[in-house]
Amino acid sequence: MDAEEPKYFEYIVVGCGGIGSATTYWLSKTIGGKxxxxxEQFKLGHDNGGSQDHSRIIRxxxxxxxxxxxxxxxxxxxxxxxxxxGLQLVYKCGSLELSRAGTxxxxxxxxxxxxxxxxxxx
Length: 122
Prior knowledge:
By secondary structure, the chain is mostly helical. 39% of the residues lie in helices and 7% in strands. The chain has four helices and two strands; from the N terminus they run E-H-E-H-H-H. The chain has helices at 18-31, 65-71, 74-85, 104-118, and strands at 11-14, 36-39. Strand 1 (11-14), helix 1 and strand 2 (36-39) form a beta-alpha-beta unit.
């Protein structure tokens, strides 16, 4: 570190994969950036993590309220990052979930539909 860089950080995020880099980004935006440090053991863009691939899915179809409440803000967050970066990151293509009536899978789908209703996800 040179003399102008801080030697103390209020927040340190260990790991700059998908979750860590998002945490560092949003935390920096929230508090102004100077008290946040992200640490990564590998070169940025490495392929050692669980989210290093070029594609991901944003799924709104969950049976647990903690996920449906969290995921409904995902598109808004990505839209903000797209505006700031000038890059399109999200391509909405939809999905289709099917099951036979009366099967264990259909019970899961019913739970998902109820959770989505509670979260006001169409």
